[in-house]
Design goal:
heterodimer, A: mainly beta, six-stranded mixed beta sheet, 11 strands, globular, B: mainly beta
Amino acid sequence: DQQVKQNSPSLSVQEGRISILNCDYTNSMFDYFLWYKKYPAEGPTFLISISSIKDKNEDGRFTVFLNKSAKHLSLHIVPSQPGDSAVYFCAASDVSSGSARQLTFGSGTQLTVLP
Amino acid sequence: DTEVTQTPKHLVMGMTNKKSLKCEQHMGHRAMYWYKQKAKKPPELMFVYSYEKLSINESVPSRFSPECPNSSLLNLHLHALQPEDSALYLCASSHNDAGGWETQYFGPGTRLLVL
């Protein structure tokens, strides 16, 4: 049972336009959500996070939106740049997993930004 | 500084070899994690150490043996691996504040090939 789902395996956008990556979750105990970016054969790089007490968090070109009632979050990248081309993983954690929180990952979305 | 380092970067080993993977962080984090990642899949949790004690073992075969010598170091000892164990092995760390919203920071990974 996949508790975190990224239904789009891939997304292509033009340079300068907005990239929107989506993530859905089923576990209502999740209270912290993270986005990671991953290049091939490298470790995931933390991008941005949001806690369940917020509905939006911004950091430069990256904004994450959380809709708790729909159990949905999205990552917006504006403007998109070719260097943003990577696999993006959505991850979630819940307080019941203890202070050393376990992350539940989505399956990832390959973003390609076309010059 | 959010750096987690891992050595070696690449490792090729035979099924009868014994080798170790090393991970280090100097962020004062008290939780450390080992993940395994296969191509085009999300990271899969193997072990969690909390305050240098093993707190989670996700039913990992005994040919993988973790060790946490101190709060900055994490090792993964490998013995009698199988070719299907070939993967990217990732280390991560987080603060481990009770009840906090934890961000895990990942190292670059060790690319392991078992022949």
